[in-house]
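user: Please review this fold.
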Amino acid sequence: MPRAVETERWIALVGRLRNDADDLVAAFVTRVRAIPPYGRGVVPQARIEADADLTFEYLLRRVAGLAVPDRLVGVGAAIGRDRARRGVPLNDLLTAVRLDFRVLWEGLRERADPSDEPLLVARVEDVWTVVEDYTTQIQVSYQAEAALLARERLGERTMLVAALLGSEDPDPDEVARLAVALDVDVDADLLVAASSASSAALLRQAADRLGSGGRMVHVQSTGRHSVLLARWSGGTGAAVRAALAGVPCGVGPLAHGLANVPRSARLAAEIVDVLPAVDGPRELRDAWLALASARLADTAADLVDSVLGGLTDAAPRERDRLLETVRAFARTGSVQGVAGELYCHRNTVLNRLRRFAELTGRDVTVPADAAVVLLALESAAP
């Protein structure tokens, strides 16, 4: 068949289908409802029909080699943006768009004469190419819009989390708004951790691991620190240490609800500040002594003087031995253990503890005295 004759017959066949475009729309709508988001009504029926009408007009013009008017040039991009904003998953969208080929091809075959079979064979690749090009337009537009939406959502999250972290008494309406932005319940349990700015990359890596299973995770820079929030149901202790293994960070008390996040975040940041040399996650139980010392502020020197001042009556070498023994006893709680650690007789340990009590008035074998001494030693540390 001469090329000119083939082209004329092809245009005529496509023209017959264009005259029945309503049938194409109806066939497409029937099939697309089998795709879950469309079946649930994520895209309204009227919108599906209007987009299908424009789509088939665009595709049939392209397939026939006719000019495409300006009003149709951007239809694919518009559909991609719309479906992204409606939350239609990309795979479901592409499945829907590729239905266009099946509907078109069946429509062409139904309207073709038996003698048009070679014509259909010759043109099937052209039809497929047009639909795939259209599919690519929609996909590119969808991905660009999805990226924009992600940036918008991240920006909103960042703004709302910043407001929450800076609040002493969070506004319930703002907390509810943040819950929507984070996609968590207002009363959800949240893991809260903070790292120094220099360890932010490690914290984000941990966040990526936590979020890989679909868990809500958000990391926020506050300047000096980075703060991680994650929906949590794994308890504390070992579960937290495993989740944040290798990350130098402070872990605040589990926040029972978004409104409790600011306090937990402040404690997490304090832990980082008072334990700067940690190589992994540290919880409040790991840092209470350093935190208590840090919170004494300008009274720390008075505490040190009142508790340890009597040691000035001992020679420097004796003072060092006494403090070494007291610290070892605080760690072990065992005279025998201290003797083994310091390579001396247990009576030597007892004598040193007795001498420390004589000089300071504090007997570290008594828990109440030991607590005060430990706090003073922490406060005296350079």
